[in-house]
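SEQUENCE, STRUCTURE TOKENS:
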Amino acid sequence: MESDALLVRRWPAFREARSGVVTHRRLLSVDDVAAVADMAGGRGLETGGITILDGSAEEFAASCASARVLALPWRGSSSLPDDAADWLAIALATGLPVVATTRTSLSTRLRHGREGYVAPPHHDASRDLAPAAAKIIVDPVLFARFSQGATARIHRTEEGGGVRLRWVLDDSA
């Protein structure tokens, strides 16, 4: 089963060497920005912490293609933007593993141990998500497993110089 599609006009080339932790404002509520700061100060993340992006879908895809982890420390009292699922699809389609908390309806599209680490909502961003991100950063086997799970979650079709993305909502993916 697939959901509605999103077209990303310029798709980035695959990058073998990746580093850093990213997120995007379109994937965060007002409350979540503070959680990103908490996570950036958490154990295991290198200096510089997490980059919060605010560009176009194409710029986000390029950043995801060169990053190592997508951070989604959702706290959840504010709602996410309506197109947040599209932005998550972009990250997963680039093979970017995710560390997230289960505070929003969007978290139901992520599976713990398949696309990354998904922690229960009571978990703390700095205590739980930062070490999980650090594990993915340093372990190439874990990164490869989660990256493969992430790309399997999104169906990609070349279209008119861009790439159309559709969620694969079947749990066997």
In short: The longest strand covers residues 2-8.
